[in-house]
Amino acid sequence: MNELLDWIANQGFSIAVAAYLLLRLDSKIDRVIVLLEKLA
């Protein structure tokens, strides 16, 4: 039972990190688009 909980905790951490990185990347992409619109 404990191993299952550990596995879920590890997966949850991986998912949280992935989601965080995606959000960071998304905000960077938005900034690049704004910059390109200003230059265009």
UniProtKB/TrEMBL annotation:
The chain crosses the membrane at residues 6-23. Keywords: Membrane, Transmembrane, Transmembrane helix. This is YvrJ family protein. It comes from marine sediment metagenome.
